[in-house]
Specification:
heterotrimer, A mainly alpha (476), B alpha/beta (1010), C alpha+beta (186), A: mainly alpha, globular, B: 1010 residues, alpha/beta, four-stranded parallel β-sheet
Chain lengths: 476, 1010, 186
């Protein structure tokens, strides 16, 4: 105990709470981190899965209705031709961004605290992008023809129109999904090998063995592996920025008051990270409780994420202010009306909710106690998720309700199918995440081991250390 | 195709080719139409032929009786323009006429291989001049209504026409012994000479029988007014165009009263800055005419007489028209100043002014109007009087029309009642007790087009033929006659009023065709017809002319009549009249002083009239020209009155008067008169079909027992329930944006430089595409000054472009599909606003925002500048609609087509794609019509003529407010209008460079009232 | 016949030292040519710092592959758009020029990233690692499982005849346990 405690206090002095609690040996670490994967199924996990199953059913029914009846099953109309569909799309894709950010950008910046949460975040990215990717397809009037957006020599001899932002979306989203998956899987390979070797039953050994492709921790592989991983991170970083920039183009390149804004790209990216971190938080807090990740996902991680949320929250708020300023400063009557309409129009309540959740709520993170209280973090992160959804709704649907020619103005009201597709997709997302937690190592084991080395010996470098059988284990 | 039972008329009509040529050349400058396909035209037929074939299959599947119904062997003559005869895939056009309150509206109906698909106005007909209204446009839909009546039933026995004829004959004979003392007829007011003959014949056979004429909103009061003023029931024919100052005493003469289509055309011609007229409208409800007024004086209907007398008094007092002194009475109240100004204006324009009275106003007002016109010397100039060509029974008000019959029915003095009037049990005031007495009649015979209350109560039910299936004739107000010729054999077992009356006249076996034809032979002063057999042959086989058999000279004349749709013979000359001022004064004195309290005004609905169009889905979904309400009616009242009664739009209110109650939604209408509630009639019938059942309440119970159809004493209280009203326009103010511009004539000068900011080139990154080299550069101009906002264009577009009806709930979700909508904006106080109407469809931007956002290139630009929508490439992202600043794109949110009845599928225009679920659509400038014009031009290697490619909206517009054409042809009307000083582009600042230009509406207010 | 000699070490330093020594022998003792074709490798649950140097590995070529693929993707992306929109069927779309470079940037960039990423991933797995290879001889040693958990292993692929010699060398260099996998044994 003594040594461990001592180093613990030292670290506390230096840089707040540690990113790794205790000094468990590699084997112990492996066992504890693989416990959720190799151990027996928990009842709580089953119940949760069951509960989400209900939501997934609702989701499937709503999808069925959409395909059978047509988009008319939704509340969309003319002028509000985009509503929940695209709102959900932008919301999900935004959430995805935090994962890439954590795993790629923080990796480039050598942020130690990223290590234990990156795979978690990447998985979230993957599932969020999967959910997001659904909407551009089902929102089509004729979804069975979605592939007409892909350039291929068709009998119609027509090509997609690359001046439209939607083909940009197609490429951006599909690239993003692919790269996120590659990045995530590449990171998984060594841990899959670990799972293979740590597993006691043949079935797991075979499955994980196949998934690990035969990884044997060879130094010759590690050499290429590390550079390749780093390169992927390097590519993902501009990618993640480009994706939400392009998503924001869907609106920025149009000329609808409330959409036609040059500030959208940075403002959307900031919003994406904002909501993404909130989602990581929402998932991480219960997970670290239930799965005993406390030693690797420490207060330090939570606090840093809180800081990021505070920062991005301020950026988003700046975006709101700037939109209004430009609307006023441009002297464009249509633009001004669009923003007045947010304050005084029929959807005022949603707009105010958005302001509270995205601007007011994160301000508690100025205080350390809030950054370290799981409860506050959880509540605020939920609020931010809601707030960011509201933001997208206000931008997309509310702008459409009042555009240029007053005679065409009309309001929007969602149907049960709209709600089904929103809450259903959240359930589906949760389900995928539960499966991930159960069957794949959610914490990058080899990186934690590496981190442990670095912590013990002040960063990389050759040093005389063993796998640390001797060192006593501290479990949470 | 005839094998399918739909005869292709004209093929067997054996036209004399030579006469054809001359006419064709004369009309369209086109070459002799030959029967073989021209190069280019031979591509289409297979496709279209197949399409028509499938549609006909669908039809025959739907209409069981179809194959059974007989192909008349008579000979028809197609209208001479634009197409010669019937070439498969080339539509024919035939002249005929529809009845509007008994008068003819001359029409030209497009027919595809025997399927009538589109109704248009007959340019040469005095009551149409080429224009049509929404109702006439929608009539073709009724033809294919799967719910229409079919066959003949007597006491639940289905009969063949032969059997029915026999029974009717027997019934008639039974009445001979007492000379028809117990035989009565209740008919629609009609101008048909043939029916007049038949009535005469019947009365000769049954001297003691009687004909009564009934329609809920007739012109009885107008003729009664003429009788008061001149001693005879005359028709006033107004030359609106000749008047510089017009005073309308609640006359909606642009949309309903008189010859609205002709009025609209003449009125619009006077709304150009060059020779502006000035229109004063005194009315309670907000009408189309009120919207076009320079000064709209809102007052309860009961107060209109008072206002008219005030004007008369001013004219007599200040302007020396002494003749009016006994009729006038000095004004009291809010409109005194107006009365003075109006009088002054009228006096300044003696002989060039016009006073009209509304059909709903009592006879005294019509008489007073006649007296004022007389005093102002307008007689013979802006107003002429003609012997009425309409049979109107006893005429006058409800009592004089129906009183006698009602009593006889109550006393059981009628054995046989023949009803051809539309649903009297629904429209007649309940006080007359028809609902109770009618079922007691021993043999009640009803001729009707659809199942309704009267049909239900009748013993003997006869299905009526649609006017496109029937032979007949009608006269216009000026006496010009039109032969009503069918375009298609009856789609179901049915008969006509002519056949029915003929049965009682004892000539039932002749058939309508012979009766009409022989009647005209006699009227035209030809000898008696040749022996039937020979006549038949002559008429039947076109070959006989070739065989050189001498033709019946009447034949030529007959063919001219049919092809032109006009018979000028026998039109009565204008009547010479002498005013009887005392009688007018007595009539005015007899009118009770307006009672205080809330006034109930039961008015014909803008779409359903008295309710006869209740089952027409196009009309149901057609937004009311003023309120933009679809599918149902509402109690219309002013904002102030609504506040006073604590009622808001959409509140359900209980309206009670004279012990009768109705419950329906209220709708607050800016500019409505206070203390008055307008109740459009025709909805909420006791017996309704699927369409009628959707919504609406019956307003007839609140109608007074006698004319006029308005009276005070209404009580209204909210029930606390709410009704969702499907209104297509939710926002009636422009928010200070330059959308639909209107300017006073005096200030047009200053306006010009402000307009310069709304037109002309704009700085742009991409150099505008150069269309000047193109042969055609299509463009449109819409003159808001001419537009009266009647909405005919909307329905014309719907008929032409196969636009689906979506139903009330979809309209509530604002998913209506009309490509062309007529927006209405109010200016000024909600209490007494002025209004502007603006037809808005795709404006075909040269830099179209919708195009560059489409991911699949489904909407692109043609080299002639059309913004093309490629339906089968569209995947339905709806991005284009989001980026369309005019929001004129429409999206098929549901499969609006899959549910259409097979019989309605053959109504589709084969030239226009039927759109599938999930596809975006919008106005195409009627590209199919452009292509037709292109084909016929190419066939002879000439350019498309200036007025050859005319979109449906422009064709239908009675005011000629919409002009379409080639902007690269400096001579074309449209390029002149694009250069007009009043021209501006909608949302010009966006740099979309729309091809549709708007012209500022000009108002001509009276400075004295400023 | 080839054989694989596996030795597990306690400490990283010892492991790396052993690697260096063996390499040195191979280099400096040509007379024992048998060792010349020895292929050394290290196995550890996490990347070992200094392993590259110890094994004398050359700089990885992965970045070059990524660069090549990325450029190809971007170039191809732009050409695709230029040809389809500007050459094959130029359409008047909202009065925009058929070939408008600014609008083509996003797709160009995305395709560049996509190609580079795919090249890295597929390149690593199938070109550099020669995966899938789930039956590599080293897996024959049950104890080798620790290589992905907490074991530090050195593997030397040598000619069967040399196996024993290398094994004794490894023991001498402080390997905790040494085992030999020969092709015959498989």
């Amino acid at each position: 105990m003594s040594t461990a405690q001592k180093t613990l206090e030292e670290v506390h002095e230096l840089e707040g709470p540690p990113v790794l609690v205790g000094r468990p040996g590699d084997r112990a670490l492996t066992e504890s981190l693989l416990e959720p994967v190799l151990g027996r199924t928990r009842r709580g996990w089953l119940l949760l899965l069951l509960a989400l199953g209900g939501g997934v059913t609702f989701w499937l029914i709503s999808l069925g209705a959409t395909f059978a009846i047509g988009i008319g099953a939704w509340g969309n109309n003319i002028p509000v031709a985009w509503a929940y569909d695209i709102t959900n799309f932008v919301w999900w894709i935004g959430i995805g961004h935090a994962g890439t950010l954590i795993s790629a950008i923080l990796l480039l910046f050598q942020q130690k605290w990223r290590t234990s949460i990156n795979r978690f975040a990447e998985a979230m990215t993957l599932f969020a992008v999967a959910m997001a990717g659904l909407y551009p397809i089902i929102h089509l009037g004729r979804p069975w023809l979605f592939w007409w957006l892909i350039p291929y020599p068709s009998t119609l001899q027509v090509w997609p129109n690359f001046k439209s932002a939607l083909p940009w979306d197609v490429f951006a989203i599909s690239t993003y999904a692919t790269v996120s998956f590659l990045f995530w899987y590449l990171g998984l390979i060594p841990d899959l090998a670990t799972a293979r070797d740590a597993a006691r039953d043949r079935a797991r050994r075979v499955v994980y063995g196949i998934m690990a492709f035969g990884w044997r921790g060879s130094a010759r592989h590690w050499q290429h592996y590390r550079i390749g991983y780093l390169l992927l991170a390097g590519l993902s970083t501009p990618l993640v920025v480009s994706v939400h920039t392009i998503v924001s183009f869907d609106f920025a390149i149009s000329q609808l008051p409330g959409w036609h804004t040059t500030i959208f790209p940075p403002y959307f990216v900031a919003g994406a990270i904002f909501s993404g971190f909130a989602m990581v938080m929402t998932l991480m807090i219960p997970a670290r409780r239930l799965l005993g990740y406390r030693q690797v996902v420490t207060e330090r991680h939570l606090e840093n994420m809180a800081k990021v949320m505070l920062a991005t929250g301020l950026m988003v708020s700046y975006g709101y202010v700037m939109e209004h300023f430009i609307a006023w400063y441009s002297g464009n009557a249509f633009e001004q009306f669009a923003f007045l309409n947010r304050w005084e129009g029929r959807y005022r309540a949603i707009w105010l909710a958005q302001l509270f959740c995205n601007v007011v709520a994160p301000q508690v993170f100025w205080f350390r106690w809030a950054r370290r209280s799981e409860v506050v973090l959880f509540v605020v992160s939920i609020l931010i998720n809601v707030g960011m959804w509201a933001e997208r709704f206000v931008i997309i649907a509310v702008s459409l309700t009042r555009d240029f020619v007053p005679s065409s103005w009309a309001n929007y009201a969602p149907t049960w199918v709209d709600w089904g597709l929103l809450f259903g997709s959240i359930s589906m997302f949760g389900t995928l995440f539960l499966l991930f937690l159960r069957f794949l190592p959610a914490i990058p084991i080899f990186e934690v081991k590496e981190l442990r080395r670095e912590l013990e010996h002040g960063g990389p470098g050759v040093h005389d250390a063993g796998p640390g059988h001797a060192v006593e284990e501290v479990r949470s | 195709m005839p094998s399918l039972g739909l005869p292709i008329y004209g093929q067997q009509s054996g036209l004399d080719a030579r006469r054809w040529r001359t006419l064709e050349e004369h009309d369209a400058g086109a070459p002799p139409a030959s029967r073989e396909f021209q190069p280019g035209a031979d591509l289409a037929p297979e496709g279209l032929g197949r399409r028509s074939f499938l549609q006909l299959l669908g039809a025959s599947a739907a209409l069981g009786g179809l194959a059974a119904c007989q192909v008349p062997r008579e000979k028809l003559v197609p209208y001479v323009r634009p197409a010669a005869g019937v070439v498969p895939s080339v539509p024919g056009a035939y002249a005929t006429a529809a009845s509007d309150r008994g008068y003819a509206v001359g029409l030209v109906v497009t027919s595809w291989e025997g399927r009538p698909t589109k109704i248009e106005g007959n340019r040469d007909h005095p009551a149409s001049l080429g224009g049509t209204d929404a109702i006439r446009q929608a009539l073709v839909l009724d033809l294919y209504d799967p719910a229409r009546l079919a066959g003949f039933r007597h006491d639940r026995r289905d009969l063949s026409w032969g059997a029915a004829l026999a029974e009717l004959g027997a019934l008639a004979r039974a009445h001979e012994k007492d000379q028809g003392a117990r035989l009565r007829f209740l008919v629609e007011p009609t101008s048909s000479p043939t029916l007049a003959d038949l009535r005469a014949r019947i009365l000769r056979r049954f001297p003691r029988a009687r004909f009564d004429a009934w329609s809920a909103f007739g012109e009885g009061q107008a003729r009664e007014g003429a009788r008061v003023a001149f001693g005879r029931p005359l028709d006033a024919v107004h030359a609106v165009g000749a008047a510089d100052v017009i005073l309308s005493l609640e006359s909606d003469f642009l949309a309903h009263d008189g010859d609205p289509l002709r009025h609209g055309r003449e009125f619009a011609a006077r709304r150009e800055p060059a020779n502006l007229n000035r229109l004063y409208v005194a009315e309670a409800g907000f009408t189309v005419t009120g919207g076009a007024a320079d000064h709209r004086l809102r007052m309860r209907s009961a107060d209109v007489l008072g206002f008219a007398r005030a004007v008369a008094a001013e004219l007599a007092g200040r302007h020396g028209l002494g003749a009016l002194a006994p009729l006038g009475a000095p004004a009291a109240g809010p409109h005194a100043k107006a009365a003075a100004a109006v009088a002054a204006d009228l006096a300044r324009a003696r002989g060039r002014s016009l006073v009209l009275a509304g059909a709903a106003q009592p006879a005294a007002v019509h008489a007073l109007a006649a007296a004022m016109n007389d005093a102002l010397g307008n007689g013979g100039k802006t107003v002429t009087y003609r012997e009425s060509v309409v049979f109107d029974g006893a005429g006058g008000g409800v009592r004089s029309r129906l009183g006698a019959l009602a009593t006889e029915l109550r006393d059981g003095a009628v054995d046989t009642l023949v009803v051809t009037a539309w649903n009297p049990l629904h429209t007649a005031p309940a006080e007359l007790g028809l609902r109770e007495s009618f079922p007691e009649v021993r043999s009640s015979i009803v001729l009707a087009y659809r199942e309704d209350e009267t049909v239900r109560a009748a013993r003997f039910r006869l299905a009526q033929a649609h006017f496109l299936e029937a032979w007949g004739d009608l006269r216009a107000r000026d006496g010009t006659a039109t032969i009503v010729q069918p375009l298609v054999a009856p789609l179901v077992e049915c008969t006509t009023e002519v056949d029915l009356l003929a049965a009682f006249a004892g000539v039932g076996q002749l058939g309508a065709y012979r009766i009409v034809r022989d009647g005209w032979r006699a009227r035209a002063g030809f000898g008696p017809p040749p022996p039937p057999a020979a006549g038949r042959e002559a008429a039947a086989s076109p070959a006989d002319t070739n065989r050189g058999v001498p033709r019946d000279p009447f034949e030529l004349r007959w063919e001219e009549w049919l092809s032109a749709g006009l018979v000028r013979e026998g039109a009565p000359a204008p009547a010479t009249v002498a005013l009887d001022a005392e009688r007018v004064a007595r009539a005015i004195a007899a009118v009770p002083a307006p009672a205080a309290g809330l006034e109930a005004r039961v008015v014909p609905d803008a779409r359903l009239l008295d309710g006869r169009h209740s089952e027409n889905a196009w009309l149901r979904e057609f937004p009311d020209p003023v309120t933009k309400l679809t599918w149902e009616n509402a109690a219309l009242l002013s904002p102030a009155t609504a506040r006073r009664l604590g009622i808001a739009s959409g509140d359900e209110v209980e309206l009670a008067r004279g012990g009768r109650k109705v419950v329906g939604p209220a709708l607050v209408v800016p500019g409505h008169a206070d203390d008055s509630v307008t109740l459009p009639a025709g909805y909420g019938q006791r017996v309704q079909g699927a369409v009628g059942r959707v919504a609406g309440f019956d307003a007839y119970p609140l109608r007074p027992a006698d004319d006029p159809p308005f009276a005070a004493g209404l009580e209204a209280r909210p029930t606390g329930r709410r009704v969702l009203l499907a209104i297509t326009q939710g926002h009636f103010t422009m928010e200070g944006r330059a959308i639909a511009l209107a300017e006073d004539a005096s200030r047009l000068g200053e306006a010009a430089h402000r307009l310069d900011e709304l037109r002309g080139a704009q700085p742009t990154i991409h150099a505008p595409a150069d269309y000047s080299k193109e042969e055609y550069r299509w463009g449109m101009a819409i003159d808001l000054s001419r537009c009266i906002g009647c909405g005919a264009c909307t329905v014309a577009c719907q008929a032409e472009n196969n636009i689906p009806v979506v139903g009330k709930d979809q309209v509530l979700r604002s998913r209506e599909m009309h490509w062309l909508r007529v927006d209405r904006y109010y200016e000024g106080s909600p209490e007494d606003p002025r209004s502007v109407s603006q037809p808005l469809a795709c404006v075909h931007c040269e830099a179209a925002p919708c195009e560059y956002v489409c991911p699949v290139n489904a909407t692109v630009h043609s080299d002639e500048g059309l913004n093309e929508m490629v339906y089968n490439r569209c995947v339905g992202t709806r991005y284009c609609s989001n980026n369309c600043p005019y929001k004129v794109r429409r999206f098929n949110y549901l499969d609006y087509r899959g549910t259409v009845a097979p019989s309605l599928k053959i109504l589709q225009n084969p030239d226009v794609t039927v759109r599938a679920r999930g596809v975006m659509e919008k106005c195409t400038y009627c590209t199919q019509r452009i292509e037709r014009a292109r084909i016929s031009a190419r066939n002879v290697g000439r350019k498309i003529g200036p007025d050859e490619a005319v979109p449906a909206c422009a064709q239908a517009c009675p005011a000629e407010a919409i002009v379409f054409g080639n902007l690269n042809d400096p001579a074309s009307r449209v390029s002149r209008l694009h250069g007009d000083a009043r021209r501006y582009d909608l949302l010009h600042e966006l740099g979309t460079r729309p091809r549709t230009a708007y012209l500022v509406k000009v108002r001509n207010p009276n400075p004295e009232l400023a | 016949m080839r054989a694989w000699v596996l030795g597990e070490f306690e400490r990283e330093a010892a492991l790396l030292a052993a690697a260096r020594t063996l390499r040195a022998r191979r280099a400096h003792a040509p007379e024992r040519g048998s060792a010349a074709d020895m292929k050394l490798d290290l196995h550890s649950p996490y990347p070992l710092h200094g392993a590259d140097e110890a094994l004398g590995l050359r700089r990885s070529t992965v970045p070059l592959v990524a660069l090549g693929a990325g450029v190809t993707g971007a170039l191809g992306g732009y050409l695709l758009q230029w040809w389809t929109a500007g050459v094959d069927w130029p359409l008047n779309v909202g009065n925009r020029p058929p070939h408008s470079a600014p609008a083509f940037i996003p797709v160009t960039f995305e395709l560049g990233v996509l190609f580079a990423s795919l090249a890295i991933f597929l390149g690593l797995l199938f070109a550099y690692f020669r995966f899938p290879r789930v039956h590599h001889p080293v897996f024959e040693v049950e104890a080798f499982r620790s290589a992905s958990i907490d074991g530090l292993w050195l593997s030397a692929e040598v000619d069967g005849a040399q196996a024993e010699a290398i094994a004794s060398d490894l023991r001498a260099l402080g390997a905790r346990q040494v085992s030999i996998v020969g092709e015959a044994l498989r």
